[in-house]
């Protein structure tokens, strides 16, 4: 099969290279400045010591879309904020039977894609792991988690696809309960903004109780929304979703002892939102914490903590505020409520 990865950055590059390492035809489509780093191949590593490469998928910049093959499978890995432009740009790559997998964080991207391509199978995909760039040609999976694909119906070939593409470097699963899965992933992604505001690695952030208390407050609000919507969130970590805020609030010494899996990440890993702010790019805050706020308000629920975090990230984007908020200061702002 011909795989196209549209919007190949860290996640898309890792995904495409892992699929190529498994013997599939892969074309990575992205910014020329990103693809230039991979001209001699992409090396993959992960936090468990697995490695592969250099892998050499086909590389095409977005300016050369007319040269791209049409895809049997298109992996859409652009950020939510770029989804509408991507829908227009990828039109020449779509065949009548092209299967599209939407790999965005947050909620709602797949509905826009399905509206644009009503006759194509459009699946949600949840990326449960973090990818960093170790060197220009090395992409590193720095945390546990797998790629979960949506099974649309009983005869869907997705289970076969998962079996074909899974590898030690790319663990894959499938599910028919993707709405619940997306909300469970969104619960974990609420930490992206906290990490971006803290301006320190994720592992260092999780070792400070005040930052964890902020994250717990954000998760409490999301869990309240999920309950009101009648959603039962699946377990994406060693702990059930409802237990995570309780564990996050534990004293540091007890958290270190009981939450080993939460801390089983590379000490240098930072979230994608930290990278967006670092590179002066617009973030996905509206599709993460902002989505929780929107859903909560529509249900008549309070959502002060997520409102504050949404506001603080917007201030950093606008240059009003600099990242690097101390844990105590951030907790005070969140508990005080929006201005």
Automatic annotation (TrEMBL):
<dbReference type="InterPro" id="IPR003710">
    <property type="entry name" value="ApbA"/>
</dbReference>
<dbReference type="InterPro" id="IPR013328">
    <property type="entry name" value="6PGD_dom2"/>
</dbReference>
<comment type="pathway">
    <text>Cofactor biosynthesis; (R)-pantothenate biosynthesis; (R)-pantoate from 3-methyl-2-oxobutanoate: step 2/2.</text>
</comment>
<dbReference type="InterPro" id="IPR013332">
    <property type="entry name" value="KPR_N"/>
</dbReference>
<dbReference type="Pfam" id="PF02558">
    <property type="entry name" value="ApbA"/>
</dbReference>
<dbReference type="InterPro" id="IPR013752">
    <property type="entry name" value="KPA_reductase"/>
</dbReference>
<dbReference type="InterPro" id="IPR036291">
    <property type="entry name" value="NAD(P)-bd_dom_sf"/>
</dbReference>
<protein>
    <recommendedName>
        <fullName>2-dehydropantoate 2-reductase</fullName>
        <ecNumber>1.1.1.169</ecNumber>
    </recommendedName>
</protein>
<keyword id="KW-0560">Oxidoreductase</keyword>
<dbReference type="InterPro" id="IPR051402">
    <property type="entry name" value="KPR-Related"/>
</dbReference>
<feature type="domain" description="Ketopantoate reductase C-terminal">
    <location>
        <begin position="179"/>
        <end position="317"/>
    </location>
</feature>
<comment type="function">
    <text>Catalyzes the NADPH-dependent reduction of ketopantoate into pantoic acid.</text>
</comment>
<dbReference type="Pfam" id="PF08546">
    <property type="entry name" value="ApbA_C"/>
</dbReference>
<keyword id="KW-0521">NADP</keyword>
<dbReference type="InterPro" id="IPR008927">
    <property type="entry name" value="6-PGluconate_DH-like_C_sf"/>
</dbReference>
<feature type="domain" description="Ketopantoate reductase N-terminal">
    <location>
        <begin position="4"/>
        <end position="149"/>
    </location>
</feature>
<keyword id="KW-0566">Pantothenate biosynthesis</keyword>
<comment type="similarity">
    <text>Belongs to the ketopantoate reductase family.</text>
</comment>
């Amino acid at each position: 099969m011909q795989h196209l990865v549209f919007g190949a950055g860290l996640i898309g590059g890792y995904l495409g290279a892992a699929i190529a390492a498994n013997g599939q035809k892969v074309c990575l489509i992205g910014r020329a400045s990103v693809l230039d780093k991979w001209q001699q191949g992409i090396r993959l590593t992960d936090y468990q010591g697995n490695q592969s490469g250099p892998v050499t998928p086909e590389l095409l910049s977005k300016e050369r879309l007319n040269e791209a093959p049409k895809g049997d499978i298109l992996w859409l890995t652009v950020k939510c904020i770029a989804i509408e432009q991507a829908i227009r740009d990828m039109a020449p790559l779509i065949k009548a039977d092209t299967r599209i997998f939407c790999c965005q964080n947050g909620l709602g991207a797949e509905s826009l894609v399905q509206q644009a391509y009503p006759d194509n199978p459009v699946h949600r995909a949840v990326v449960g792991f973090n990818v960093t760039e170790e060197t220009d040609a090395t992409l590193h999976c720095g945390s546990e988690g797998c790629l979960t694909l949506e099974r649309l119906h009983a005869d869907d070939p997705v289970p076969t696809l998962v079996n074909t593409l899974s590898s030690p470097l790319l663990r894959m699963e499938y599910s028919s309960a993707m709405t619940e899965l997306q909300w469970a992933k969104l619960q974990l992604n609420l930490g992206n903004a906290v990490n971006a505001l803290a301006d320190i690695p994720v592992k260092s952030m999780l070792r400070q109780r005040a930052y964890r208390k902020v994250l717990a407050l954000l998760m409490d609000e999301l869990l309240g929304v999920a309950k009101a919507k009648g959603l039962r969130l699946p377990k994406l970590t060693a702990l059930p979703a409802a237990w995570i805020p309780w564990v996050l609030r534990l004293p540091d010494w007890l958290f270190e002892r009981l939450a080993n899996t939460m801390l089983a990440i590379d000490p240098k890993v930072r979230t994608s939102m930290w990278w967006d702010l670092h590179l002066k790019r617009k973030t996905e805050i509206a599709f993460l914490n902002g989505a929780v706020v929107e859903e909560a308000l529509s249900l008549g629920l309070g959502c002060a903590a997520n409102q504050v975090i949404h506001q603080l990230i917007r201030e950093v984007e606008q240059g009003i505020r600099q990242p690097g908020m101390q844990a105590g200061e951030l907790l005070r702002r969140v508990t005080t409520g929006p201005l």
